[in-house]
Structures are given as C-alpha cells and as structure tokens.
Amino acid sequence: MAFLSESDVEAGLLDQLRGLGYSIAHDDDIGPDGKHPERESHQEVLLLLRLRAAVE
C-alpha cells in the first residue's frame, strides 16, 4: 500500500476544487497577517467580502 502524506492529499483535493471552478487563496495572502488580509483573525470562518460579492 502506498503512503500518502497530508500534502499529497491536500494537493489532490486542491486540484479537484480548481477543476470545479474554485479559486485557491493562501493564508500568506489573505490571512490576518497576510499581504491583503480579508479577516481579522482565524476565528472568522467566513470571508464576508467574498461571500457578499458572490451573492450579489
């Protein structure tokens, strides 16, 4: 049986999500300490600006 690391599983899932049209954002970019923060803390699960834009 082949061993799959967490990063192998994550990479496969992210590829599937991209294939479904999702965009992938990394914490380095949108996290609280990122270049373009979209939330004040990791306790904020929803990215409200993105949600509002998607609903409009």
UniProtKB/TrEMBL annotation:
Superkingdom of source: Bacteria
Keywords annotated in UniProt: Endonuclease, Hydrolase, Nuclease
Molecular function per GO: endonuclease activity
The name this protein goes by in its record: Type I restriction endonuclease
Species this protein is from: Spiribacter salinus
Lineage: Bacteria, Pseudomonadati, Pseudomonadota, Gammaproteobacteria, Chromatiales
